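Re: that chain you flagged

S.,

Sorry for the slow reply, it's been a week of failed gels. I finally had a moment to sit down with the sequence you sent. For the record, here it is as I used it:
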Amino acid sequence: MPTQTSTRPEFRAARALGLDFPGGGHQPSAVRWVVATVAAVVGSLVACAALAALGVAMFPATAGYEHFRFADYAKLTIIGVVLACLAWPIVTWFSTRAWKPFLVLTVLVTLGGLAPDAWILYKGQPADAVGVLVVMHLALAVVTYPALVFIAPQRKSEKPALPPRR
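Prediction finished late last night. Pasting the structure tokens below so you have them in one place:
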């Protein structure tokens, strides 16, 4: 007897992630998405600048550390945040509850983004400075995810979930 569609592992995983593949019509409005993108980029740059300054204040030996220079972290921050912002309307294409799979992606990408930090720590960079870089990576997720989900929320379906009562 063939396995029912709803009990197959790939369908259970898709359901657990909130993937219901609604197609178009659920993406955030373009204007709100642009505002959210700008807020995410600016907020992330401000957070990184504050954390770099805090890192130097807490660990004076890190003064002049190359990765705490604005030009060094700003280009990577902007690229990463813009890529995350581009992913948001794509995820809304696959789910009517896109916050859920987008949160999973945010956590996975953030964890993956820590790999360079682990590498430079392994190569001998100061642990306190690398610790600040880790917090900077976490700050990007903390700023970007809510900026997208709350400033540029996913549109609701035009159709009611249940037929209207008569």
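What I noticed first: The chain has six helices and no strands.

Talk soon,
D.
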